[in-house]
TrEMBL record:
Annotated protein name in UniProt: DUF4242 domain-containing protein
Top-level lineage group: Bacteria
Organism: Salinicoccus roseus
InterPro entries: SCO4226, SCO4226-like
């Protein structure tokens, strides 16, 4: 099975946690019917964007399924999980409250990225108030999403500086 990232603009379709959880529950039921697993979903604090990680065989089937459920898809890409094992993520035991997006430079290969990440990750210790959780790297090397638990946005920025990795955007996740 393959992992896919789906980014969605929620456009006022939900505006609170209960409505979002209800929508996700409905989406999850329909996905299961098509043998697609919802691994995790994160939503921005203002409920404007959703980030779904799905496991399935076919991106087109996932896209068709979500569109049939009125999910607005901005992006669907095959991704690789880095930093955690899939079984750990499926348990959803770890809290995250910030998502950093980085548009990866064209010259960086997956092997170079993984080597760089391994080498620089030790520097997270320089910002102990921030806990790095996991990264999803698009297989086409266009971007990655990194998840953190941190007290505030400025501490996430310090952590990214410590590991010498840029930020294209930071989204505060609804963690309530």
């Amino acid at each position: 099975m393959t992992l896919y990232l789906v980014e969605s603009e929620l456009n006022g379709k939900v505006d609170n946690k209960n409505d979002f959880e209800s929508k996700v529950s409905s989406i999850q039921e329909k996905l299961k019917e098509n043998e697609v697993s919802l691994i995790e979903v994160q939503v921005s604090k203002d409920f404007s964007r959703g980030f779904f990680i799905l496991e399935g065989e076919d991106a087109q089937a996932i896209q068709d399924n979500l569109k049939a459920q009125d999910v607005s898809i901005q992006l669907i890409k095959e991704v690789r999980l880095v930093g955690k094992e899939l079984d750990e993520v499926k348990k959803q035991a770890e809290q995250v409250n910030y998502l950093v997006e980085w548009n990866i430079p064209e010259e960086l290969t997956m092997d170079n990225y993984l080597e760089r990440k391994k080498k620089n990750s030790i520097h997270y210790a320089e910002v102990p108030e921030v806990s790095f959780s996991r990264t999803y790297v698009c297989e086409d090397m266009s971007k990655c999403l990194c998840f953190y638990d941190a007290p505030d946005e400025s501490s996430v920025k310090r952590a990214r500086e410590a590991v010498k990795t840029p930020i294209d955007s930071i989204t505060e996740i609804n963690a309530d």
